[in-house]
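Q: I'm building a small set of examples for a reading group on sequence design. Run inverse folding on the following structure and report the sequence directly after it, with nothing in between.
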C-alpha cells in the first residue's frame, strides 16, 4: 500500500452525476482522489476544488473510456500524477463512467450497441487490466452495474446486457485478483435523479411518480444514496466483502 496516510481512489467519470457524488463521498472519508472526465473539464475542475476544500488532494485527468487504445497513455498520466504526489500506486479504482442509450431491442442499431460495449464493458475490462500494476496489493475495485440487470424495462436491452456482463466479470476479477488481496465488488443503482439518459427520471414527473410507487422506500433515488455506498465499500471495515453485487435501489420492483 501507499506510504501516504490518505488512501488514493481513482474514479472514472467523476466530474458529474453519480461519479461526482462518489468522489466527494470518498474525500469526506479521508481519501485523495483522481477523477476522470471526457469533455467537461470545467465541471471536473470544480469537483477538484470541492475536494481540496475538504482538505484532500485531487486532480482531474481526461479519459474517454470508450477509447481503449488510449489506456496506455492514460496510465502514463496517472504515473506522472503519482510521482508529483510522491506516491507509487493508487489504492482503489471505481469504474463509474458511462452513458445511456434508450432503444427497444428491435430498434437498437449496431452503432448504439458498439458504443455501449466500448463504454460499459470493453472499457472497464481493459482499463482495469491496464491499471493493475498501479493498484496496491490489498486495494479495492468497485464496478458499477444497474438495477436493470435484475429487472427488465423495455428500451434498455443492450445497456442492461452490458451491465450483466460486468456483474459476471466482477466475480472473475475477484477470483483472479484475490492472490493480491484485491477485493472486487459491483454496485447496482436503481433509478436516480440525475441528468443520465437525458434526465428523464429527474424531469418527467409521471415517470418519477411511477418509479417512486414501485420502490419500497417510496421515492426515487438521489445521487447521495449512491456515493455513500461506494465510499463504504472502500472503508477499512469492508475489506472482507468480495465478489458481491450490492443493489442500491431503495427496494425497487421487489
Amino acid at each position: 500500500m501507499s506510504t501516504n496516510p490518505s488512501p488514493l481512489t481513482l474514479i472514472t467519470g467523476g466530474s458529474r452525476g453519480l461519479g461526482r457524488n462518489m468522489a466527494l463521498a470518498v474525500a469526506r472519508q479521508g481519501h485523495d482522489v483522481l477523477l476522470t472526465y471526457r469533455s467537461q473539464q470545467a465541471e471536473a475542475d470544480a469537483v477538484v476544488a470541492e475536494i481540496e476544500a475538504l482538505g484532500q488532494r485531487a486532480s482531474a485527468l481526461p479519459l474517454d473510456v470508450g477509447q481503449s487504445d488510449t489506456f496506455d497513455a492514460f496510465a502514463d498520466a496517472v504515473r506522472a500524477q503519482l510521482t508529483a504526489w510522491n506516491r507509487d500506486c493508487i489504492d482503489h479504482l471505481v469504474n463509474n463512467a458511462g452513458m445511456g442509450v434508450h432503444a427497444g431491442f428491435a430498434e437498437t442499431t449496431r452503432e448504439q450497441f458498439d458504443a455501449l460495449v466500448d463504454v460499459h464493458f470493453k472499457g472497464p475490462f481493459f482499463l482495469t487490466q491496464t491499471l493493475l500494476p498501479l493498484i496496491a496489493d490489498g486495494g479495492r475495485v468497485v464496478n458499477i452495474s444497474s438495477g436493470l440487470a435484475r429487472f427488465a424495462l423495455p428500451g434498455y436491452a443492450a445497456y442492461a446486457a452490458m451491465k450483466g456482463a460486468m456483474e459476471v466479470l466482477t466475480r472473475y476479477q475477484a477470483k483472479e485478483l484475490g492472490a493480491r488481496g484485491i477485493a472486487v465488488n459491483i454496485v447496482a443503482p436503481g433509478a436516480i435523479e440525475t441528468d443520465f439518459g437525458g434526465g428523464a427520471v429527474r424531469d418527467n414527473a409521471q415517470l418519477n411518480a411511477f418509479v417512486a410507487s414501485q420502490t419500497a422506500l417510496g421515492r426515487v433515488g438521489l445521487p447521495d444514496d449512491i456515493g455513500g455506498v461506494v465510499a463504504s465499500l472502500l472503508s477499512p471495515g469492508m475489506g472482507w466483502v468480495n465478489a458481491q453485487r450490492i443493489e442500491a435501489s431503495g427496494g425497487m420492483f421487489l
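The helical segments are 17-28, 41-53, 71-84, 110-131, 157-177, 200-203, 205-213, 224-233.
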